[in-house]
Design brief:
Shape of chain B: globular
Number of strands of chain B: 0
Strand content of chain A: 15-25%
CATH topology of the largest domain in chain A: Rossmann fold
CATH superfamily of the domain at 91-281 and 299-308 in chain B: MetI-like
Oligomer: heterodimer
Largest sheet of chain A: 8 strands, mixed
Helix content of chain A: 25-40%
CATH superfamily of the largest domain in chain A: P-loop containing nucleotide triphosphate hydrolases
Number of helices of chain B: 13
């Protein structure tokens, strides 16, 4: 192995054309990546990660240009290559894996066409050879039946499969460097820069349990037009000193090989100062001891019957999709019911059935001791007022032509049954905005003038405007930066105590659920396989699926080696739901034929803890308490 | 898919039935006796009576309607009121053929150029070329057909004599004769359609160029030509294809003004003449046929859209 790095950027600067002038987006970045090395790049949105990543591939958006420095790759300086020469390098020697695979795939071309065009163009492979190479690449990413996958369109694959297709695409030319644009933020040992420390501390897993609040970073990344000349983080840094605003800190090599750009680095390294914000303890965060149920769901079922155009043309009847299968749950007053599971497990369908947006086929709902009709149009205005939703993408749920004040005022006047005067609505709007940490001045703004975090605050304020008993939040923070996510999670926790509301909180992120929820339900293929308190669900005995989810979530602490069990393969399509226990096809603790033959019993443990599994609870406890033990 | 098609075709038949009833009812609302209107005020009472007898105008309305409907379905919707009382069907079919020829030729002349113009404008968004294309496409779409038609006649028919100013279609026309007759009316219709198609293509392209999959294709290092032709165009042209399919109905039945300016014997001008002459059998047949073409073009547009878009499922 030679010592020459695969790629070496030296004092690289990038500019964007904005408002008639060139604005610096990336300033003097130096990095080198050796063979077989993984180089991570983190930051909030707007920090320039993606721009730098693509710059390393010799590609810039049309309104951007290199403004200095060099990128050495394969003895060539990518900043000086012609666009055509740079294009010949990327895709062949440098591969790219984007963040959102569905958007990144062409919806009208088959996976095969999209995979094969890379090798056909760059390596001049024949059609047959390209096909073979595509199959190999898919097999490398552990995709079963690559031939069948090649004939499908992107929307016919699950998210995990799409991501693997993207990786296979990048690998198919056997590149020397892969650029992966992915939201992974959990790979530090002991960060030194105040910004890195802030990012890490804002992760829910870093918080000291449910009683504490998450640390946050003040403000948002500065726009390109207003970047400070000295330290770019100075305005948001809790350790800022005068020097930070006047002089740019140099990039200093640390004894352990790291490099750091901070005036206060030596002090942080020595441990004499700590930039992590003190965690406030919020006194009323815990749920009240007396559990008063506000929502009961019993044996909810929902099956979707639809078939694709192809199926209809070939006359194949497609299997019905069982999105919800016999789901029962109870949500208590001022409690948070956290719902976790992989995508495709039916979390969102459950939320929509409870909200009435999707009409359930069967089952009973009860809200505040009164029966709740399944279809929305048969629910009373009172019931509508009492269940509100907060969605994943705040940008899509706010009408771009309504100001914040109009959006909130409309909800207020609808649920106030027109009894509120104009002044009353204005007063309540201002109070709502303050409750979510915004000022009354926001009432006059349009959604496009707000940041992602601010939009989600407005969406939360709108949900609270109706003074509901239950708020259903479907992945409300997964589209946000971790620093913003911390702010929103703190806010939701405070509001629950202040307003006496309950949450049904959906997330695929176990840390987020663990931080917020009192009671956790784990969903798999339309069934809740386990539910219990946070402590019950996170310690043995637990359902093998929960166990696998817990072992699969990346740990912030790298010193702890990954242990426990690992899931193999994708979640099966709900159309071909396995018989017996739905999890038996992937279960590492499978007992035997009984798992495939019989529906597992619902075992009730201490404190209402429920697990749907054939393995007796005592055996599960023994199995899971032995490290590395497997059934 | 089959179920979808069956449902749509049934719906189409229902639409045709309803339209034919409405048209039939409306023709009865004409003031005065239809026979007298057709034959003229000075017609002798015996002639009027004979006319009423010949066309069955003395029967009750439902009977008249059913007789016409039965004739339409079996391909013989009666005879024209006009001199000589020729059968309606051959007349209408002849005009239908002419309209079909004009519509097809218009699409052939217009589409390649306007789609390419739309693509070029989108790729050079905001440049002088984009602005020029926008200016031309807007102004040709905005000008009334009789203005562009007359300008074209003055320039290319009367001025140079390259093309025919009026289009008296005769038997035994050669291809050259047809081109001389068809080109100017097709250009006039093509201006209106082409401007529209250009704008649609441009908007579709600009939308698609912003999508993440285009960036993927760029980062795969594919040449720009491949990215545009293989990746972007297929998605960008979807809305345009729908517009084109729907506009086919307009080209077949809606070119009344153009057919008039050029004296072209199409379906539109036949309809206008039938209205002027109170020629009810021709009028009814024409209207139902035009409605059929519009509805069929719409259905075609939907099916085409679904066939080209793997994400759409017709149910």
């Amino acid at each position: 192995m030679t010592a020459t790095p695969v790629i070496h950027a030296q004092q690289l600067s990038l500019e964007y054309r904005l408002q008639g002038g060139w604005q610096n987006a990336i300033r003097g970045v130096t990095l080198s990546i050796d063979r077989q090395q993984i180089h991570g790049l983190v930051g909030e949105s707007g920090s320039g990660k993606s721009t730098l990543g693509m710059g390393l591939m010799g590609y810039l958006p049309e309104n951007a240009r290199f403004a200095g420095g060099s990128i050495l790759f394969d003895d060539k300086d990518l900043t000086r290559l012609s666009p055509a020469d740079a294009a010949r390098l990327r895709g062949r020697l440098i591969g790219f894996v984007p963040q959102n695979p569905l958007d990144a795939l062409n919806p009208s071309l088959t996976i095969g066409e999209q995979l094969q065009e890379v090798t056909r163009y760059h390596l001049r492979l024949s059609r047959a050879a390209a096909h073979q190479r595509a199959c190999q690449a898919l097999e490398q990413t552990r995709i079963a039946e690559p031939e069948a996958v090649l004939r499908r369109y992107p929307h016919q694959l699950s998210g995990g499969m799409q991501q693997r297709v993207m990786i296979a695409m990048a690998l198919s030319t056997r590149p020397r460097l892969l650029v992966l644009d992915a939201p992974v933020q959990t790979l530090f040992r002991r960060p030194l820069h105040p910004y890195t420390i802030g990012l890490l501390a804002s992760l829910p897993g870093a918080a000291g349990g449910q009683q504490s609040r998450l640390a946050t970073i003040d403000g948002t990344a500065a726009p390109l037009t207003g970047r400070p000349a000295a330290c770019v983080f100075a305005e948001r840094c809790p350790l800022v000193i005068a020097q930070c605003r006047t002089h740019k800190p140099p990039l200093e090599q640390q004894p352990d090989g790291r490099s750091l750009r901070c005036w206060r680095g030596p002090e942080i390294a020595a441990g004499s100062v700590n930039p992590a914000r003190p965690a406030h303890v919020s006194p009323a965060a815990a749920a009240p001891a007396d559990a008063v149920p506000i929502l009961r769901a019993e044996k909810l079922r929902k099956t979707f019957h639809d078939a694709s155009l192809f199926d209809r043309l070939t006359g194949k009847a497609s299997a019905p999709l069982k999105a919800l299968d016999d789901v029962s749950l109870t949500i208590n007053r001022q409690a948070t019911f956290g719902l976790v599971g992989e995508s495709g497990s039916g979390k969102t369908t459950l939320a929509r059935v409870i909200a009435g947006l999707t009409v359930g086929d069967d089952g009973r709902l009860e809200l505040l001791d009164r029966p709740l009709a399944l279809p929305l149009h048969r629910r009373s205005p009172e019931a509508l007022r009492n269940i509100r939703m907060v969605f994943q993408n705040p940008g899509d749920t706010l009408n771009p032509y309504y100001t914040v004040g109009q959006a909130l005022g409309r909800t207020l006047s609808v649920f106030g049954r027109g009894q509120f005067s104009r002044e009353e609505i204005a007063r309540r709007t201002a109070a709502l905005l303050e409750a979510v940490g915004l000022t009354a001045a926001y009432a006059g703004r349009y959604p496009e003038q707000l940041s992602g975090g601010e939009k989600q605050r407005v969406a939360i304020a709108r949900a609270f405007a109706a003074s509901p008993a239950l708020i259903i939040a479907d992945e409300p923070t997964s589209a946000l930066d971790v620093s913003v996510q911390a702010v929103i999670l703190n806010l939701l926790k405070d509001l629950r105590a202040d307003q006496g509301v309950s949450y049904l909180f959906i997330s695929h992120d176990l840390e987020v659920i663990g931080y917020l929820a009192d009671w956790i339900g784990v969903m798999y293929l339309g069934e809740i396989v386990e539910q219990g308190t946070r402590d019950q669900v996170s310690a043995p005995p637990m359902h093998p699926y929960t166990e696998a989810l817990l072992s699969a979530s990346p740990s912030v602490d790298l010193t702890q080696p990954a242990q426990g069990i690992r899931l193999t393969g994708d979640i099966p399509s709900p159309r071909q739901k396995p018989a017996g226990c739905p999890f038996h096809t992937r279960c590492p603790r499978r007992l035997g034929p009984i798992c495939a033959a019989e529906v597992p019993p619902l075992q009730i443990g201490e404190g209402g803890h429920q697990i749907r599994c054939h393995i007796p609870l005592a055996d599960l406890r023994t199995l899971q308490s032995t490290p590395g033990g497997s059934g | 898919m089959i179920r979808y098609l069956v449902r749509r075709v049934l719906l189409l038949i229902l639409t045709l039935l309803l339209t034919s009833m409405i048209v039939f009812a409306m023709t009865q609302a004409l003031p005065g006796d239809i026979a007298r209107l057709v034959l003229g005020r000075d017609a002798r009472p015996e002639a009027v009576a004979a006319f009423r007898q010949q066309f069955g105008l003395n029967d009750p309305l439902p009977v008249q309607y059913l007789r016409w409907l039965g004739g339409f379905v079996t391909g013989n919707p009666g005879r024209s009121f006009a001199a000589g009382n020729p059968p309606v069907m051959p007349l209408v079919l002849d005009r239908l053929g002419n309209s079909f020829l004009l519509a097809g030729y218009t699409l052939l002349l217009t589409l390649p150029l306007s789609i390419v113009a739309g693509i070029v404008a989108a790729l050079r968004e905001g440049s002088w070329l984009d602005n020029l294309i926008a200016f031309i496409s807007l102004s040709v779409t905005g000008l009334p057909e009789f203005v562009t038609g007359i300008v074209l006649i003055n320039l290319f028919a009367l001025g140079t004599g390259w093309f025919a100013a009026t289009s008296l279609v005769q038997d035994g026309y050669t291809v050259v004769d047809w081109l001389r007759v068809l080109t100017l009316p097709a250009l006039t219709a093509g201006f209106v359609l082409g401007g529209y198609v250009t704008r649609m293509t441009r908007a579709g392209m600009i939308d698609e160029l912003k999508k993440a999959y285009v960036r993927t294709a760029i980062l795969k290092g594919l040449p720009r030509r491949t990215i545009i032709l293989r990746h972007v165009l297929r998605n960008a042209l979807l809305p345009t294809i729908t517009v084109i399919a729907i506009s086919f109905g307009w080209l077949m039945g809606g070119l009344v003004v153009i057919e008039n300016v050029f004296n072209y014997p199409g379906l539109g001008s036949l309809l206008v003449t039938a209205v002027e002459q109170k020629n009810l059998p021709v009028l009814q047949t024409c209207v139902v046929l035009i409605v059929f073409i519009f509805a069929a073009a719409n259905l075609l547009a939907d099916v085409l859209y679904a066939a080209l878009n793997p994400r759409i499922r017709l149910t």
